[in-house]
Amino acid sequence: IHSPLSSQYMQDGYVVLDGLLSAQECDELRQRMTDIVDQMDVPQHCRTTFSTYHDEQLKTQGNADYFITSGDKIRFFFEKGVFDDKGEFIVPRQRSLNKVGHALHAYEPLYKKVTHSPRIQGIAKKLGLVSPVILQSMFIFKQPGIGGEVTPHQDATFLYTEPLGRVMGVWIALEDATVNNGCLWFIPGTQNSGISRRMVRTPPGTFPLTDFIGREQTYDDEKFIPVPVKKGGVVLIHGEVVHRSAENTSEESRHVYTFHIMESQDTRWSPDNWLQPTEELPFPPLYTK
């Protein structure tokens, strides 16, 4: 397939497209998330207060278990330091979350609609995807003041396939993403060098539940290029392109809806990945009849 879109994607490892969503669509997704967070039950392990090393270990194990079983659920992942030692919020709950994942695309109608929208399906077709499936989805908050940095990484470290090159992130800015509030930075062209680190499930019955094989390379900071995106714009992210985001030091949040798709034709999804399809939620096809 030789569309200008696919040429740029193959050259740089990412593409920015403006105006995927209208301002109103962005606001509806954000409002729905506000409602979800208002109604959320805070998971018990988050409220656990620990006084002993054993308590701390149980909490760590609870966190890990909650994460590794979240692929077919809607779950809540908090920033550090948002609970006091009694397990109560010390910041407003709307400002407490790092992300919500990983099955918004399956169980939340507004998110499902955007994920399968004609515009997204059209982009996938322009890129020549034959049988794309949706792997996971997240709402990322990047809270003002406390939204932490995301260190340089490649998505295929976490979402590994054989062959590589079958996974793409779709990263939709629900608010302007700027250099000040923690937009993405890329090293263009790094999608062609493979990956040096993989996150894998450890054998059943062992702890921790996941581990890393290999290590992240060190990258030259000078090579990263900031990629600001206007509200409603989308970044398509090749599974092996190196990217990062800085902490959000601004007064504004940087809300994003992001999901990953995989070309399933002639692709093996690694059974070692943390994320696995379940009977309740096999990876759904992107293309709807």
From TrEMBL:
Pfam family, one: PhyH
Gene Ontology MF terms: metal ion binding
UniProt keywords, alphabetically: Iron, Metal-binding
UniProt cofactor(s): Fe cation
Keyword hit for Membrane: no
Keyword Iron: yes
Role played: 2-oxoglutarate(2OG)-dependent dioxygenase that catalyzes the conversion of 2-oxoglutarate to succinate and CO(2) in an iron-dependent manner. However, does not couple 2OG turnover to the hydroxylation of acyl-coenzyme A derivatives, implying that it is not directly involved in phytanoyl coenzyme-A metabolism. Does not show detectable activity towards fatty acid CoA thioesters.
PANTHER family: PHYTANOYL-COA DIOXYGENASE DOMAIN CONTAINING 1, PHYTANOYL-COA DIOXYGENASE DOMAIN-CONTAINING PROTEIN 1
Family recorded in the similarity comment: Belongs to the PhyH family. PHYHD1 subfamily.
Protein name, per record: Phytanoyl-CoA dioxygenase domain-containing protein 1
Organism of this sequence: Sparus aurata (Gilthead sea bream)
Taxonomic placement: Eukaryota, Metazoa, Chordata, Craniata, Vertebrata
